[in-house]
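Run log, item B.
One chain of 104 residues. Sequence copied directly from the ordering sheet:
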Amino acid sequence: MTQATAIIDFSIPAMRLLEKLPEHVRAEVIYGKLYILSHPTLHHARLVTRISRELVNHVEDNNLGEVFSSNVGVFLVEGRNSVAPDIVYIGSSNPKQKMPLFTS
């Protein structure tokens, strides 16, 4: 679990809150509250790397989808909540998985 270093209450949707922050700021929006996150410790980063490696191997070996382990925002509850998990798995049956990562 990540620790919040500041909490600010806003009444605008998560996407609009996050758009106002500099890109390097790690933040989550949960039920309209903005949580500015501290950077993970070396121990935390080491564990995330190990778990991610095992998950990637399993998902790729079995053609199950994709795994992301950094800077992937996840919007929940119709865009009202945005979290930044350490690892994100998107199953191959999920329509979002088929979206291009980059558009021109």
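Observations after the first pass:
- The helical segments are 14-19, 42-61.
- The longest helix spans residues 42-61.
Flagged for discussion on Thursday.
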